[in-house]
Each structure stands twice: as structure tokens, then as C-alpha cells.
């Protein structure tokens, strides 16, 4: 009996060893297959010349993003000379100067490059981008603080609209119910207001109108937090009662640096540095007649530079609300309302 038990034990151990060998062999085969597949995919994606031209590493985000928010936080931490701050990946000096210029134009910095009181200090305290923080702080002056809090909250979330692959046409028709000619900011406001009106059956209503229930619930939570900040800063909580121009003027007061003009070739270019931009396909203005002047929240770089969250504006608002940033004025000539941009220091011809 003892010999038989020993023989069975030896046989079991040898079976386990064979099983382990088979498992290891299969893993090696899988790794080799994955490696070969990766090589094949790489060969299909890049030619040798294209692969050789690629940089060794990606450009750090610090060197390719807007630095206004970073500089504002450094100023709030008490760092006076931000240009000499030891960044791990030092950004270009041009990006630093643009960020400081924007903060000065927004009223966050004074001529001595110090935080202003109370605007700059409050902007640094708000968990928002500098432009959006400026919007929130000045919304009471335009009489639309509740609408601006809603729009900013909606800008913090992504994928408000849902487009199922097999119901694209229905989703597009449902989206048109909220779209408006003024642009994406008012469209987002319309979505939130409709969501609040149907809050009892919000999940079912969102499903019927191809909206993301979790995203809108998150935006509602963010809005409540922003309203708490406004009460803390003693900003009057008032509504414009449907006055769209008041909302758009307030948006221009914060996003004046992100202004673009429609050229004769049908392409938008930024007013300040003439960068060519396109309207994002998800924008409400993508299928509508493009306004002559727009402001946008951000630029998305894919195959080309796209503007996201766009609103059409009156060009006179730029010179009225940001005369310190733009050195031009708009003249309307004749009955065709021809818009002309010129330097006021340049004599007429």
C-alpha cells in the first residue's frame, strides 16, 4: 500500500510539472504572437521615414497649454517672479508672457504683476479656469448670475448629448430641440433648464431626448457649489429672465481673448494673432449660418484646430467690454452693415 501511494504521488507530481510546462509554453506563444502583432501594426501605421521623424517623447503638456491658470496659482502661493520659477519642463517664454498678459487683461493682476484685491484673489480661490472665474465674478453686474452659473457648470462636464450608433438621425432631431442660433452656450443653458423642469422623471426623460443623465446630474451638483461660492463672495443671485444679450455680453467679458472673425474665404481666424480655426462638428453652429464674430471656450487640436463651445456675438461688444485688449473699433457703413476693423491710431484714407 505504501509503494502504491508513493507511485501515485510521483505520478501526480509529474503531471503537475507537465501542466506547468504547457502553461508556460502557451504564455510564451501568446507573448510572441502579441509582439508580432504589435510589430505588424507598427509597420502598417508608419513608414520608416515617418517613424524616424517622430520625436523621442511627447511634448510636455506644460509646454503646449494655456498657462494662465498655472501662473494665477503661483501668484496666489506668493511666488513673485514666476518667470524664474524652476519648472521641471520649462514652458516657452512666449507662453509665459501670454499667460501674464491674459491675467492682466482679466483684472487678476495689476501693473506691478501682483494679485488684485478682491478680483485676483477670488479668481485664484475659485476652482475654475481664469476666464470662467472672471465670468462668475462679473455675472452679477450683467444681471444674469444664475444663467452664468448654469453655463459654467455645464462646461465642466463632457458628453452631454448621447448618439447611439443605430439611432443617429433620431438623436440629431432630438438635439435640434435645444439648439439655438446664438450658439453652444445658450444651447447648454436650454438643456439644463429642460432637465430641471423634468427632474421628477429625469432618467426617463434623458433617455427619450438622448441626453446623459449622469452628466447632467453632475452638472447640477457643480452648479450648487458655484452658487455657494457666489453667496460667499456676495454676488447677487439674479436672473435675466430670457435676455440672451445680457448672457452673451457677460460671456464676452470673460472670453474676449478667444474671439474669432469669419473671413471672406469662409474660415474663422482669431482676431489677435490670425490663427485659422474651424467650427467643431458637435457645435450647434456647425449646420447653421456662421456668425461674423464668435467667442469660444477652448480649442481642440486633431486633424485641424477646432473651436468648441462657440457663441455668436456683436463685434462692438469687444471694443466696449475689452478696450484694453483690442486696439480696434467697428464701423457700420451703409445699409449692408459692412464691418470694418481698423486701428484707431491709423489715419483714414
Topology, pairings included?
Blueprint: H1 2-45, H2 48-53, H3 68-76, H4 93-105, H5 119-125, H6 130-138, H7 145-155, H8 168-176, H9 184-197, H10 202-208, H11 213-232, H12 244-255, E1 259-262, E2 268-270, E3 276-279, E4 293-301, E5 305-312, H13 316-321, E6 329-333, E7 338-342
Parallel strand pairs: 3-5
Antiparallel strand pairs: 1-2, 1-4, 2-3, 4-5, 6-7
Name the helicity range.
40-55%
Main β-sheet, in a few words?
5 strands, mixed, barrel
Mass-distribution shape = globular
**N-end to C-end Cα span:** 117 Å
Which spans have pLDDT < 50 for at least 5 consecutive residues? 1-10, 34-43, 330-349
Rg, Å, rounded: 28 Å
The counted number of beta strands is: 7
Structural class: alpha+beta
Mean pLDDT: 82
Total number of helical segments? 13
Binned strand content = 5-15%
Order of helices and strands: HHHHHHHHHHHHEEEEEHEE
Strand order of the largest sheet: 1-2-3-5-4
Task: Tell me about this structure.
The protein is α+β, with helices and mostly antiparallel strands. Helices cover 48% and strands 11% of the residues. It has 13 helices and 7 strands.
Amino acid at each position: 500500500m505504501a509503494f502504491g501511494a508513493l507511485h501515485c504521488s510521483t505520478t501526480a507530481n509529474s503531471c503537475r510539472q507537465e501542466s506547468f510546462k504547457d502553461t508556460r509554453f502557451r504564455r510564451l506563444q501568446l507573448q510572441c504572437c502579441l509582439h508580432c502583432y504589435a510589430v505588424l501594426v507598427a509597420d502598417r501605421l508608419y513608414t520608416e521615414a515617418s517613424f524616424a521623424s517622430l520625436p523621442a517623447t511627447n511634448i510636455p503638456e506644460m509646454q503646449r497649454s494655456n498657462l494662465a491658470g498655472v501662473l494665477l496659482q503661483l501668484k496666489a502661493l506668493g511666488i513673485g517672479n514666476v518667470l524664474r520659477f524652476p519648472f521641471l519642463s520649462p514652458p516657452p517664454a512666449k507662453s509665459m508672457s501670454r499667460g501674464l498678459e491674459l491675467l492682466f487683461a482679466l483684472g487678476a493682476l495689476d501693473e506691478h504683476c501682483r494679485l488684485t484685491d478682491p478680483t485676483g484673489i477670488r479668481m485664484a480661490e475659485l476652482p475654475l479656469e481664469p476666464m470662467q472665474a472672471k465670468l462668475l465674478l462679473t455675472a452679477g453686474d450683467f444681471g444674469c448670475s444664475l444663467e452664468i452659473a448654469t453655463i459654467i457648470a455645464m462646461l465642466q462636464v463632457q458628453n452631454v448629448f448621447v448618439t447611439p450608433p443605430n439611432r443617429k438621425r433620431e438623436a440629431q432631431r432630438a438635439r435640434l430641440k435645444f439648439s439655438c442660433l446664438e450658439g453652444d452656450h445658450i444651447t447648454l443653458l436650454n438643456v439644463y433648464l429642460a432637465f430641471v423642469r423634468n427632474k421628477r422623471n429625469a432618467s426617463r426623460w434623458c433617455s427619450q431626448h438622448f441626453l446623459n443623465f449622469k452628466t447632467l446630474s453632475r452638472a447640477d451638483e457643480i452648479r450648487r457649489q458655484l452658487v455657494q461660492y457666489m453667496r460667499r463672495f456676495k454676488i447677487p443671485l439674479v436672473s435675466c429672465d430670457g435676455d440672451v444679450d445680457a448672457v452673451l455680453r457677460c460671456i464676452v467679458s470673460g472670453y474676449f481673448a478667444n474671439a474669432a472673425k469669419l473671413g471672406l474665404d469662409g474660415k474663422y481666424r482669431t482676431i489677435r494673432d490670425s490663427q485659422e480655426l474651424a467650427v467643431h462638428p458637435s457645435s450647434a453652429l456647425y449646420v447653421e449660418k456662421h456668425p461674423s464674430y464668435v467667442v469660444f471656450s477652448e480649442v481642440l487640436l486633431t486633424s485641424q484646430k477646432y473651436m468648441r463651445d462657440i457663441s455668436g456675438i456683436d463685434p462692438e461688444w469687444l471694443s466696449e467690454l475689452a478696450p484694453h485688449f483690442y486696439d480696434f473699433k467697428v464701423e457700420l457703413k451703409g445699409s449692408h452693415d459692412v464691418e470694418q476693423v481698423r486701428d484707431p491710431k491709423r489715419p483714414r484714407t
